[in-house]
Design brief:
With 392 residues, the protein is α/β, with parallel strands linked by helices. The chain has helices at residues 100-115, 119-122, 151-154, 159-167, 192-207, 220-234, 268-278, 280-283, 295-312, 341-345, 367-370, 372-390, and strands at residues 3-6, 37-44, 47-54, 60-64, 66-67, 70-71, 73-75, 138-143, 170-175, 213-218, 242-246, 328-333, 355-360. Helix 5 packs across helix 6 (220-234).
């Protein structure tokens, strides 16, 4: 059956639900949350009888598609990628054949990146956090969320950056994606197929030297990090000691179950609603300034649209691929509005090693990085585990 997503009601905590088709039938006590994904059970004119897939509100009910000409729900896009959304990893871990031609291409690209000093443009704080070290014990590779930058990992005064400076034995490679900071004049790379080889060319020298590493991705940074590791495996590079893939579904979540709208067809107003649907607390609090003009039109909307395409047009192409054999730490915040717990728990399919799932209390999708108490707890939790992997 068709699926629909709630786009209205962001100022009221969701949209009104009635128990029957008639507009005068009894109202439900709860509203259907903005961003919720629902399955169509029946459609009569502009009245939709639904069953909830994700989000909060009544499990079933009747809602209006429009009010005063404004969409309250939109039909979920059935993109061409849907036929590729079936499958999952193989039953066990194991080696993969090295693509020697691709390896050669990356080695050539890596030499060019090294010659132009690209590392310090992509990883702005590499030197500021102590790199390069003569004999590092470990490296931490970080991949940021949409509409963000490396600074979410490298900001001063956190348990993570304090420890990095104090121990003096771990290098941090927190990447900026093109289109921000020192890469502001570089075009956005809107697919992982384009972004990952670009980042790999920058990182190749460091991954090939044998120093142990861990990968840390948050939100869409998990899918960038995942594709980065699949690419690394394909060209014969060593795998990490562990990976942290937090606050996002596993990449083999079927397209039809993704709890977001494809942004390419959204108007500017709808794009604002979509951004809010990810973390209303964050984007109606300190970060509400992203919607101020002209910054929204000139900077934030183009960046967010480009970064959102990394996940809303992502095509999963790894059905049957061997699992990883290293631990995965995949955590979910109980304040999430779109991403459901079971979507994050799907990451367990990707490792034959330890799978660590936990719930981050009082934490939304982005407040893990921006709300002081949540950020401190999040950073400390990751740091404590990295210490163990580094043997420090």
């Amino acid at each position: 059956m068709p699926t629909w997503q709630v786009t209205g009601g962001s100022d009221k905590g969701g949209i009104l639900v009635r128990k029957g088709q008639d507009l005068k039938s009894a109202q439900c006590d709860e509203r259907l949350s903005t961003g919720a994904l629902v399955e169509e059970l029946a459609l009569v004119g502009e009245r939709l009888n639904y069953k909830i897939i994700s989000g909060t509100g009544p499990d079933e009910g009747w809602v209006s598609l429009k009010i005063s000409g404004k969409d309250l729900l939109v039909k979920k896009d059935d993109d061409a990628g849907a036929e590729e959304d079936h499958g999952s990893p193989g039953d066990s871990s194991g080696p993969v054949d090295v693509d020697e031609a691709l390896k050669g291409e990356i080695e050539t690209a890596a030499k060019a990146k090294q010659a132009e000093g690209a590392l310090l443009n992509y990883c702005m704080k590499y030197k500021g956090l102590g790199g390069p070290l003569e004999k590092p014990k470990m490296r931490v590779l970080c991949f940021h969320n949409a509409g963000s930058a490396e600074s979410c990992y490298t900001g001063p005064g956190t348990p993570f950056t304090k420890w990095i400076k104090e121990c003096g034995a771990v290098e941090v490679m927190a990447f900026d994606y093109p289109g921000r900071d020192k890469l502001l004049k570089s075009p956005f790379l809107e697919t992982t197929d384009k972004l990952v080889p670009d980042l790999m060319a920058v990182a190749y020298e460091k991954l090939a030297d044998g120093v142990p590493y861990v990968v840390w991705g948050h939100s869409v940074g998990t899918w960038v990090g995942f594709e980065f590791l699949m690419f690394a495996r394909k060209i014969g590079l060593p795998m990490p000691k562990a990976a942290f893939f937090n606050a996002f579904p596993a990449p083999h979540l079927p397209v039809a179950k993704r709890p977001w709208r494809v942004n390419r067809r959204l108007s500017g107003a709808q794009m604002k609603e979509e951004v809010l649907s990810w973390d209303k607390v964050h984007f109606t609090g300190p970060s509400k300034i992203v919607f101020d003009e002209p910054a929204w039109t000139d900077t934030w909307q183009p960046m967010m649209r480009a970064d959102f395409r990394l996940f809303d047009e992502y095509k999963f192409k790894h059905a049957g691929a061997p699992k990883f054999d290293f631990p995965l730490h995949c955590w979910w915040g109980d304040g999430e509005l779109l991403v459901k717990q079971e979507m994050v728990e799907m990451w367990k399919d990707w490792t034959s090693g330890t799978f660590d799932f936990s719930v981050m209390k009082d934490t939304g999708h982005l407040t893990a990085f921006y709300q002081p108490a949540a950020k401190k707890a999040y950073m400390q939790k990751v740091t404590d585990l990295i210490k163990g992997y580094a043997g420090l």
